[in-house]
Amino acid sequence: MKYKLMLVDDEPLVRKAFQHVINDNFQELDVVARTGNGVEAVELARRYKPDIILMDIELDGMNGLEAVEEILKFLPQSVVTIISAYDDFSYARSALRLGVLDYLLKPLNKSDIIELLKRSIRQLEEIENKGRMSVSSKLDKKINKGEQSLDLPLEQEKRLLHHISLGNYNQAMTRLNDVITYCFNQEEHCQIDNFIDYTQELMAVIYRKIYNKSSLSEKEFLDKYPREEILNKLENAKNVEGLLELFKSNFKRLINPLLQNKFQEDNDPVEKARIYIENNYDQDITLDEVASEIGLSPSYLSRKFKEKYQLGFLEYLTELRINQAADLLINKNIKINEIARRVGYRDGNYFSKVFKRETGLNPSEYREKSTSKILSQ
Q1: For the stretch 245-267, what's the b/e string if a residue is b when 16 or more beta carbons lie within 10 angstroms of its beta carbon?
Q2: How much of the chain, in percent, has pLDDT values that exceed 70?
Q3: d(CA 87, CA 157)
Q4: What is the number of domains present in the chain?
Q5: N or C: which end of the chain has fewer CB within 10 A?
Q6: What gap in Å lies between CA 141 and CA 67, rounded to an integer?
Q7: HSE-up of 203 (CA within 13 Å, CB side)?
Q8: Same domain for 186 and 105?
C-alpha cells in the first residue's frame, strides 16, 4: 500500500533533502505536495489528503502549529511530525497537545529521517488496525473539556530542559525537584487529571531530549525505554504524590546512563572548556583565555564547541549568565546591580539590555512576574 506524504518547510533545500531520502528508501511513500507556506499547506492538505505530514514551524502566511491545528480538523488520522529549529518547550508542548507524532529539532541527518518515516508508517498501520488514540490525543481531549488547568512554571521547565541539553545532569535533577515542589504547592487547586496531562507533556519532551543525548539508535532507545509505557504509567496514577514519584523515578531511569557516560567525557577538551566556562562565568572570561587554559587554538575551540553544543562560545556564555541571573532574581533581597556582578557583568545597564534581549523582559519585570507566578503559593 502507498501512503501519501506532504513536506512543509520554508527552505527549498530541506524539502529536496527529504525528497531525496524518501525516493531512495521508501517505495511505499509518495510525496504528493511540497510547500513553504502555511496557508498553502492547509489547502494542499484538503486537496491531496496526505497520510503523513512533515511540518516546519516558521512558515510564510501561517505558522506550522496553526496549520497543523487546521489540518487535523479535517484529517484527524494524519500522522504529523513538527520539525523545528527552535528548542522551545512551549512549542513542543503545543505540538504534543495537537496530537502530533513527535517534535524534532533541526538539523536531521539521513538516519534520523529514515527512523522518523518508519515510525510514521508504523503509526499509520496501528491506526488502520485499531484506530487512533495516542497519549497525545487523549491529552488534547482532556484539555478541550475546559477543566481547570495547571499553571505551569515555564521558566523552571526551560532551565530543566536547558541543563539536559548541555549535559548538566545533576543541575537538571535540581531543576526537576523545583518543578515537583511547585506542583505540590498547586495540588489543592487542581484535579489529578491536570497533573497527569502536565507530567505527560513534560516527560514526552524530556524523553526526546534524552534520546538526542544518548548514543543509542532510535529502535534501541525505544526498546530499552518504551515511551508509551512510561507515559501510560503516568496516565494510571491514582494521586498527585504517586504521580510525581513516578515522574521522578522515570526521569532518573532515563538520565542515569547519561550520568555514567559523563565520566567517559572527562578527557574531552571541548567538555573541559564547557566546565571551565561553568566554573568561571562570573568572571570577565574570553574565548582566548578558555582556549589557552585547555591548550587549544581559539579558532579550533570555537569551531568544535559549536559543533558539539550548537551554540558559539559567546552565545553559550550569555545563555548561562542569563539563566543564572533569572534564578537570582527570584530572591528579592539581592539588588539587580549585585546580580549583574555575580553573573559576570560589570555594567548593570548593559546587563539589563542583554537580559531583556534574551528574555523579552527587563530584570525588574522578570522579578515581578516570577515572584507572582512561582512564589505566591
Answers
A1: ebbbebbeebbeebeeeeeeeee
A2: 83
A3: 12
A4: 3
A5: N
A6: 19
A7: 33
A8: no
